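Re: your question from the hallway

Yes, I did run it. Sequences:
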Amino acid sequence: MRQTPQREGILRVLKDSDRPLTVEEIWERMAEKRSGLPTVYRNLERFVRQGWAESILGVDQVMRFVRCDSRHHHHHLQCERCGRTAEVDACGLEDSLRQLEALSGFKITAHQLTLFGLCARCRASAEPGAERRPGEAGHEIDR
Amino acid sequence: MRQTPQREGILRVLKDSDRPLTVEEIWERMAEKRSGLPTVYRNLERFVRQGWAESILGVDQVMRFVRCDSRHHHHHLQCERCGRTAEVDACGLEDSLRQLEALSGFKITAHQLTLFGLCARCRASAEPGAERRPGEAGHEIDR
DNA sequence: TTTGTTGCAAAGGGTTTGCAGGAGA
DNA sequence: TCTCCTGCAAACCCTTTGCAACAAA
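Structure:
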């Protein structure tokens, strides 16, 4: 896989963001060397295949991308207000899954879990007028 | 909400299927009184809002719809081979969530969990050549 | 009769593709 | 040099919308 300014740009944008971004947001943030939208799509797809990025579906049904820090099994916690996400390492689901297998007859091979809520920050600063949706700009540390 | 043959048709198709269906699949199965695709979209949206149906995203990233049997909190088990789903009542996640809240500082307000695997049936009849993906025809009982 | 619903066709919007030119290695 | 990658524009496809005709209640 070749190294190109476009690819570096995409990965940089993802790295610099603390929340998942839509394809268009990524594209917009590639200030210096903006590439074509198709290039962003094509590379994002590869990054996901390679395990360098991950796509997650927001509450608003929009697909967003995050840099994938940990290769191992994990899940995402998404703040409903600012859109920031946190990775959750352990999922503590294993026991429940074994139980379910016995109950349902299914052999469970994979699961997908997304958690929604309020991050510590937004929880603290619950000032009115601060409501935001995932996909909108977050706090001052946004970008 | 008025009762129309189109609405009855959609609900009937959903009820007769043991696996989630795409909008187009639902539309195709409304044999007698086939409606326009927009009508299917419009009603499906309402049914979901009303809690009569539920949309679930497959491993293939395609949205499908199921009749919603239980109004209470539940999750879906999807068979990767035949596409059939089962509803799981308890999710046994509650304890883990409390732990996570303490750990992450998040106040978890909602979660979305989908389980993938092999249903009892497909597990038993693991004959080669029987591979199917969600969205393709299932077993003989498919319709 | 009133008002919600349908069907059609057209618009919309995000994503993908084809292809020729360009640039990593 | 040889591929792989990019950019552009066009094609796609699923979904939504506008509007007039229609049918529940």
